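Final paragraph of the annual report: two paired records, presented back to back.
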Amino acid sequence: VVLLIMGFLLSVGVLQYNSSIENSKRVAFQSTVLNALSAAESYRQKYGEYPSTATLNLLFNDTAYFTTKPINPYTSQPLQATTDQSPETSSKLGYFYYNVKPDGSIEVITNPVVDINLASGSLAGGSLPSYTVTFTVKNTSGSVISGAQITIGGRTVSTNTSGTASVTLPQSSYFYSVNKDGYNFYTSNINLTGNMPVTVTLSPKTYTVTIFVMDANTGNPISGATVSGIGSRDTTDPNGKLTLTNVTAKSYSVQVSAVGYENSSKVITVNNNQQVNITLSRASCTITFNITNGANALVQLNDGSVVNLDSNGSESVSKPCGEYSYMISKEGYNALSGNINALSDITIQSVMAKAEDELVEAGEVQIALVYSPIANVFNDFLKNSPNRGIVIRQVSSSSDQITILQIVKTIFSSAKSFSPSEIHVVAIGAGGQNRANGNKGGGSGFRTWDEFTNLPDINEVLTINVTVGATTTGEGQPTTVSIPSYIQTITASGGGHGNNPDGQNDGSRSQYGTGFAASVNGNGTSEAYDYLEALPIWKELVNMQVYDNGIGGGGGQSSTGVQYPAQHGAVFLLIRGVVYY
């Protein structure tokens, strides 16, 4: 009897133990399936449709959805959805059938049965406590976000005006996602073992915005237009294009300005990658003619308009800023013609010669106007050349106002007129000093250049703004030059210090970097300053051995052991054309 009673009690204990294990598996299976369906719902919110069976199985391996692969407690293997409805498969515990129907909804069958709408903790054969998780959703600035959709445990809730939403679920581990238009999709996991708050920070979506700025009349791109009010303040490239990346989704008031154009503004609403076209209308520029001997002369512009000069040979006309050509005629005088690049108010000055003063072409000449504290090293060169000349400006900085004809007459004093064909501007930075112990030379100043795309009237007053790089105890200072309406600021960097001796010619352990027109070579030669498009006069200057370690030369010693200090930079205005007498 005792043995029978003991056997009965043991069998009851085994049944209770097996029932407990079975219930634990059922609870784990329910939690796993609900998490899988939450992932499917999150996918639908992000992409507009439920994932296919194959895609859902791939999501189980995606760390954006699951930090660890979901495990089927009945097989102890990673959970797998199937579309197999055969009795042999569907009769097995841990069976998870998932399929997207033609109408876009999903069909789910499980063994054991899982109530996918279950919101309480009750299960057949046992129960789990339920807890409330309260979500607070904010943006990166800390402001709450209302209307954010949170999917968890097969349920979807939305945040209220305070940015919060609550949901009560059975104790378990859950995958959840948060979705809101204009923000990046967010996913994470929680282990719900009690009432708990969860704060989610959504980052705004960003896009690429490409802005094209064009002339309102011609449709031509506008280079150098300044765009502000969206992204960082920047300018358009030669194609009138500006590309902005990582632009937050919202509305922007964009301002655009360009020399010679009226300012414009436009509201841009960014909610995807987009291209925006902005047109600018030409501003009004005043063109003033002051023509010696031009009393009552007639000015004809290429737009068909006519200007009658007054008794003093002067008159002004308002035109859309831009490029024009003109012809000035007067009985008994040679006609004058030229081009106008009117980006702002501009004055055209010239002299009309009497018809009997016939000009004689004397051939092509080339002239170099040099700005540098050591420009006088060129004083004795090209003096006797019939078609070359050097004009010296021994300065370190200048805002020089001069006409092309004045430069020409400095060399060819009897010249009556000049017809330019090419004008280049070249800048050379200052050389870098050698290292303190003197055994590593500095690099020579870098060379950069630009050219006039539009040639000025020979009597137009040009403003040449120059800052010549000076030597220091370290790196050489840069040289800058600009000529409004013709050359935007160009910069030639200084050579590196002996510790980092980069330059047009690098310094070396024992020698300085050779500068321009050097009489004694260190490391490299002056030919490094030549460039493919250079005018012949520049190539001649390159090979003039006129000054020690050269303009912009680095500090250090030569191959013969002579020590040379770093040298200042320079600016060259190179002019090529035909002179008339």
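The closing record of the year follows.
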Amino acid sequence: MANKRYRIEGNSRSDEVATGQESRIADPLWMLARQWQVGEFRGEDAASPVLIQYSMHTSPVSTFRSYKANGSTQIDSSVPLEMYAEQQVPSSLAAFARAAEAGSHFLRMLSASGFDALRAGIRDQYSLAAPSQIEPEETAWVQMLIRRSCDGERIYRERSHILNGIQNQVNLVTVVNAWVAWYEDRFADDARFDSWDSERMEYRFTVAASDEANSVVLEAKEYQGGHLDWYSFDIQEQKRRVPAKSQNPPTKNVLPTPVRFAGMAASRWWEFEDGSVNFGDVSASAVDFARMITAAFAAAYGDDWYVVPVRVPIGSIAQIQELSVLDSFGDRHRIASVASGDGKKRTWRFFELNGDDENPGLFVPAVALGRVEGRPTEMVTLIRDETENIAWGIEQRYEGVAERTIDRQSQWQKVRPVEDVAADQSLWKYRLMNPVPPHWIPFIPIRSGDSAQMRLRRGRMSEWTQLSPDQVGIRGTVLLPNPAAPLNLYEEEVPSGGIEVSSAYQFARGVDGRTYVWLGKRKRPAERIRPVHRQTDSIQRA
């Protein structure tokens, strides 16, 4: 018996941990023993931070460049980037209504300022031209606008010539300048910012933040529209002409505040905690490490963290150059950058941009606040047809001359030709091939050059020659961005589930409270649409 050793181990009879989390009261001595057991009486020779000093360098976003443009364009860093990236030139049909609206407003401003005598001359000199495609129900509306309005878009293009001719008329110059300001605030369609890639059905552009010290170029390669934020960008190029840490950087003093969150464990054992969160009731499976790590961190280390307020300008890239902590013992500690210490192979990259491996910064873009999206003025669905090994571009809606949305399926049902059936074929009829609606545009797979990559080229159905020219063809700009050039989609951009591309007017506020309106596109996963299966040489009931 004396030569043997016995080991006594505790064994839990159940998996629940709620009992261990409870603080059951027995007597005062037991309460003191419980505090001693958890180490509350153990003194720690540790200090608390009382003052944080840091220096920060910021570079405002100053230029924008579309992938189509040859050069960059200066922008206002406080204006939402979505307004620059998504704005597009309206279609030729919608441009007529926009020009008429701008012209009517110009005539109203002239009348309100006492220049009624100029209205007739302006209507004659800047008359509206009738659009080439007009729906029957829009004819009266178009003729009324031609008689009573003028071409406001042409007036805006020739505003410099107009202002030079009326320099001596101060009141008239004031009216024209006020109308120009209204026009620029109302219509955002600068072609320099057109960033929509029709072959990818996405936006592609770059923004640059530069100053006397640094130059950083950020690239957004796959922005689908809707909401733009820091994670939409990658570092394309960065040049640092001076060291990241200057000799005498401007410092700012801030007070650290302990981190607080719901259900946070109290620092004292007998302190009452928030009863809405019960860590003892946390359930997790054997592989749910993230939940258990989060619960353990919140219970054991929640009171060891502090938050430091740092004010970063909107529309800029910020980088902390130096950081020091003054503790309650009067000692000052210089905190080094974790990213610089860990190097390029680090795994902790919270809020970092791809490609920003050394001395990373925080990008805070100016984004749209309270964004409101109108009803789609144009909608196209791209789907796969595995039976025919092609893709279909279905133009569901487009914006007409009267700024109203026209449904192409309903339009096709009204003018669809009715097949004549002979008297002796009243029960059965022979069909060589079932027709395809003229707003279903085929995309044929072709090989891209000598490579193995396949592209989807926009095609045309031969049977459309039997229909009226007013019934066939593309009306919008999504599938027909350039009438003089073919459209070759990348095959991977049209998945098996399909995509939906829509255009709609956007309304939002900037950080300064100003309102912005623009016409932008957006790509989403498509709703399920059944492809048109081609059937040949069939007999069907009449």
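The first helix runs from residue 18 to 21. This concludes the annual technical report; the extension proposal builds directly on these records.
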